Each structure stands twice: as C-alpha cells, then as structure tokens.
Amino acid sequence: MKTLIIFFSLITLLLTSSISNSQSVDECIDNLECQSSWVGLSDDDKETVFAFAEDYKAFIHLARTELSFVEQAIIFAEANGFRELTPMMRLRAGAKLYEVNRDRTISLMVIGTESLQSGFHIVGAHIDSPRLDLKGRPLYEGSEFALFQTNYHGGIKFHQWTNLPLALIGRIDKKDGSTVSVSIGLNPDQPIFMIPELSPHVDPGRNSQTLGDFIGPEDLDPVIAHIPDQIEGGDVADQVLKYLADEYGVSRADLVSAELSLVPAGAPRDMGFDRGLIAAYGQDDRLASYAALRAIADVNNPEKTTMAYLVDNEEVGNRNNTGARSEYFADLLSRMLYSELGDAYREPLFRSALRQTKFISIDVNPGVNPANPGAWELGNAPKLGYGVNLKLYGKGNTANSEFIAWTRKLLDDNQVPWQTVTYKVGRAGGGTIGGEFSSQNIEVIDFGVPLLSIHTPYAVSSKVDVYSLYQAAKAFYGYSE
Predict the structure, then answer these.
(1) Is 24 exposed, middle or buried, given 0-12, 13-18 or 19+ CB atoms closer than 10 A?
(2) How far apart are CA 110 and CA 48, in angstroms?
(3) Is position 276 within any domain?
(4) Is 28 part of any domain?
(5) For residue range 435-459, what is the model confidence (pLDDT) as tens digits?
(6) Nearest alpha carbon to residue 122 among 351, 362, 300, 317
(7) In this predicted structure, what is the pLDDT of residue 208?
(8) Total H helices, total E strands in the chain
(9) Can you tell me the mean pLDDT for 24-42?
(10) For 408-425, what is the mean pLDDT?
C-alpha cells in the first residue's frame, strides 16, 4: 500500500509540474512574465545545449577575424553538403550553395521550392569584431624593444587591451600575387605579444587619472621582440625583419599590403561553477554568425530560398565592398534571379522579390550587468539566460509592428524564448547591418542575444541563449508564410 501511495504521489507531482510549466509558458507568451530559459530544461535538453556550446567554442577559437571566419565557414559548408555557386549553375530546389566575396564575406543558400520571385528568408550578421590592426608601416624600435604601431577597429576601451596576451592573425599579399597566411599565438607552444603597462611602483599617480589620460590609442603598441643582433650589431627591429624574411619570405614593404590583426590569444572558456556561461573573444558578432551558419546547415527543401549572409566591417560602419553597404548583396540576389528567369528577367521583378523578402539582422547587445544594473531601465532590459531579444530602438529604427507580430508568432510557434530590449533614452545605442537592407525596401527586424562585457577582449554569453538563437534562425529559415 505504501508503494502504491508513493506511486500515485509521483504521478500527481508530475502532472502538477506539467500543468505548472504549461501555465508558466502561457504567462510568458501572453503577459511576458517569463523565467530564465534554464528553468525547466530536461537533462537531455541541457546536454544538447552544452554540446552545441562546445562546437561553438571550437569554431570561434579558430575564427578570430573575418578572414579566418570565412576560411572556417567554407570548411564547415563543404562538410555539410554545400558547394560553390558558379555562373552557369541552374538553381534547383534543395540545392545547398555558397559564395565568397573577396575572402571576407560569405553567403550560404538553400534553394526553396517556391520561385525566387516570391522573395527570400535571410539571416544577416557580421563577422568582424573589435581588435587592433597593424598600421601600414608598423615596425619600429623603442627603448631597445621592437614594437608594432597599431590602429583600432571598432569601439574599444583602450586600457582593456594592455597586459593581455595577443595573437597576430591575418595575411600578407605580395606584389607577385602570392599570399602569406600568418597565425601566431593561438597555440600554447607559440609566442604571444603584449602591450605592457606601467607598474604601480613607478607610477603612483596613475589611479588618480581619468581613463582618457590613462592610455590613448597611440599607446597601444605591443612588444614583439627583445634580442638584438649580437653578430652584425643590428638593432632589434632588424632582427624582426630578418625573421619575417626567413620565415615568411616577406620584406618591410610587403607589410604595406598586409591585413594583420592583434586579437586576444586565449581560448574560449566556460565560466562559473555551473559552466552555464562562455567567456570568449569575438562573440560580437561571431556568436550570431555561427548560429546562422549552423541553422542553415540543418535546412532541407524550404519553401522560401534561405540565406545566411555574413559580412565584414560592421564595427566601422558597414564600409567597403565587403560590408553591408556594398552593392554585392543586390548583385548576388539579382544574379540568382536571372539564373532562374533567363531572358524573362526584368528589374521590376527583382525589386518585387526584394519587397517580399524577410530579413533578420542578428547582432548581440549588452545585457544587464550585475555590477551596474542601473545602466538599463530594467523593464526594457535584456537578461542573460532569457533567450533572444527583439530590439525596439524607437525613433524610426524599429521594425514595423506587423513584422514584429509576425516574428513573435514565429518564435512562439517554435517555442523559442524571447525578450525585448530598448536602450535608456538618450543614454546608449548601437548600430547593426539591418538599416542597410531596410533601405532596399526589404522587411527587416533586428534581434540578437545579450552579452556581458561586450566590446571588451572577453565577452560573456549564456549557453542557453546561444542555442536559442540557433533555434530561432532555424525556425525562420523553414517557416511557412
């Protein structure tokens, strides 16, 4: 009898839990009274989230710049059945294709069963992150050290880049047309570079200075060598040039046509006793780009042709022919439509396809920081662990209400947790690539996931949010109108 009572008590508890969770979901959808996405996760679901996070960390460890992201994305795409789009290729439903623009932008597409004239479903994100770039003539000597002159890419706090192990990543293009790849500092057996700070022993007044006086952009020069030439009497910089010539076959002048970046050298790591957070460089915005990449690989035979459009230079205003302002995007879509229509192609048909396209611009944003929650008006603030966030900027920068409603239905129908974000009025802000596509008469909405320490050398995400963003992108790719 006691066993029977325990059995029925367990059944009652399970039924009660199920009803309670159902009510909780309803309250979240209708009243926005939501709990953390971690609450109620089954052991199997949690295992899936953690496994996805391991794949994500492994990818972004290697994908430190837009160049290396595209390299890794091509490897991933081809391993998942995508093949390169060619000029004479016929676009057949279900085909998985990719195209690269100048090694710094990549588009992955799955051709839908509907005509391209009916529009596309596109997820866009950027693959560049704040970093230090070498100047055109970077090498010099100071106080018997060899150093590199740098410039910064994107918004950074200068003092956060001192005393930090840095890796040198990128490429050098030579006049003969050859390209030399450079990657130094990611592997534990390789050297790193660093911008050394003054010790408090010799700088007692530093703590009383403002951050603006603490260190400036021209002070961000890392030490790259120290041993002078003991035989020929050359300085340390000469030794660096000799090393570059011996190791890479490049000269001082070759550095003028180089894209070399200094990025944090540390690998992505779990954070916290529960391992629920990820601390890593470059999560703005390679978190979103990875989610879009993984999602489109899981799409088969969609109704609308789907695309992951992953671009360069958002951190500096979407510039250049690999940024979101480039005509490359329109060129790619028009070429695809021409491939379908042939001589029947007309400009109005292309413009109509743009009008019927839905575009989700995904970019991460700051989340509520426990050290300074007052940076937000908390009723409209995004919290780590609560899913993707819809960005409601106001002032003409928000998606129209009907597309927001459409997106809410998409997320709710697919049980993807979501929240909203609006910055404090006049106190904060940030751009994405979305505006560049909205101006082309495309229906665009901005969303992402919240991070801590955004635009610092190590940002922090919640693993469950990373997985939720992947779920959102996958649902969007396959969603019927």
Answers:
(1) middle
(2) 25
(3) no
(4) no
(5) 899 999 999 999 999 999 999 999 9
(6) 362
(7) 73
(8) 11, 20
(9) 85
(10) 92
Q: Residue 86 carries which side chain, given as an amino acid letter? A: T
CATH number where 422 lies = 3.40.630.10
N-terminal to C-terminal alpha carbon distance within the chain: 55
> Domain range for residue 214?
131-264
Tokens of 383: 């919290």
Same domain (yes/no): 259, 297: no
163 and 117 in one domain? no
Task: Label each residue of 436-464 as H, E or C.
Answer: HHHCCCCEEEEEECEEECCCCCCEEEEHH
Is-contact 392 421, C-beta < 8 A? yes
CB 130 within 8 A of CB 155: yes
Whether residue 24 has pLDDT greater than 90: no
CATH code of the domain containing 137: 2.30.250.10
* Domain membership flag for residue 344: yes
Q: Count up the domains in the chain and report the number.
A: 2
**Distance of alpha carbon 59 from the chain centroid:** 11
The span from the CA of 8 to the CA of 75, in Å, is 54
Task: Determine the pLDDT at residue 114.
Answer: 96
For residues 180 and 72, membership in a common domain is answered with no
Q: Are residues 233 and 145 in the same domain?
A: yes
Give dist(CA 124, CA 288) in Å, integer: 9
Phi/psi at 317 (5° precision): 100, 25
Tokens, residue 13 = 């508890």
Establish if 153 belongs to a structural domain: yes
326 with 286, same domain: the answer is: yes
Angle in degrees, CA 325, 83, 302, rounded to 5 = 75
Q: What is the pLDDT of residues 214-248, one digit of tens each?
A: 788 999 999 999 998 776 667 899 999 999 999 99
Place 14 in a pLDDT band, splitting at 50, 70 and 90: very low
| Mean pLDDT along residues 176-188 | 96
CA atoms within 13 A on the CB side of 224: 25
Is 426 found in the same domain as 383? yes
Does 141 score more than 90 pLDDT? Answer: yes
For position 233, what pLDDT does the model report?
A: 65
Average pLDDT, the chain: 90
